[in-house]
């Protein structure tokens, strides 16, 4: 099962961890990222709605990397995934509000992926926590069986 793993710079040994099953979030991030390549999955369409109708800049949420490094390109992508935590926290908050807005298409997504909104809310809280401490954050994923 895929899951999200967070890193902080500087390291934050007391950092909260994502407690919930984050597979729905991994799926959303992957499909939302794929919209630029013409993906036509329901999660890709949700990203388009969030960007177009709700005017949410998803770039902070879509700044993530595969945690498994197999070559130099993977290592570079992992390094590029570092970001300021405050914009990520704000983005997550706006996405969570939109998912709870009652907009029919997003409500359908929230129903189909019941852990998505909670995982985004939790990621937003953790990003806010990191921002309060002046730490950068890196969102990565791992694919586990």
Q: Averaged pLDDT, please?
A: 94
Beta-strand residue percentage: 5-15%
Largest sheet: 4 strands, mixed
Shape: globular
Count the beta strands: 4
What's the helix count? Answer: 6
Instruction: List the helices and strands in order.
Output: EHHEHEHHHE
Low-confidence region ranges: none
User: What oligomeric arrangement do these chains adopt?
Assistant: single chain
Q: Indicate the radius of gyration in whole angstroms.
A: 15 Å
Structural class: alpha+beta
Number of domains: 1
Distance between the termini: 5 Å
Give a description of the structure:
This protein has 145 residues and is of the alpha+beta class. The protein has one domain. It has 6 helices and 4 strands, in the order E-H-H-E-H-E-H-H-H-E. Strands 1, 2, 3 and 4 form a 4-stranded mixed beta sheet that branches. Helix 1 packs across helix 2. The longest helix is centred in the C-terminal third of the chain and has 17 residues. 30% of the residues are buried.
């Amino acid at each position: 099962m895929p899951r999200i793993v967070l890193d902080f710079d500087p390291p934050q040994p007391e950092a909260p961890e994502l407690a919930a099953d984050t597979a729905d979030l991994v799926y959303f991030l992957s499909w939302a990222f794929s919209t630029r390549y013409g993906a036509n999955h329901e999660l890709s369409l949700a990203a388009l709605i969030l960007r177009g109708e709700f005017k949410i800049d998803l770039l902070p949420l879509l700044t993530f990397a595969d945690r498994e490094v197999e070559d130099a390109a993977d290592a570079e992508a992992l390094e590029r995934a570092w970001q300021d935590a405050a914009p990520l926290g704000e983005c997550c908050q706006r996405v969570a509000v939109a998912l709870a807005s009652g907009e029919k298409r997003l409500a359908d997504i929230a129903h189909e992926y019941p852990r998505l909104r909670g995982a985004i809310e939790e990621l937003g809280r953790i990003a806010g926590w990191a921002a309060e401490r002046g730490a950068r954050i890196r969102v990565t994923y791992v694919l586990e069986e």
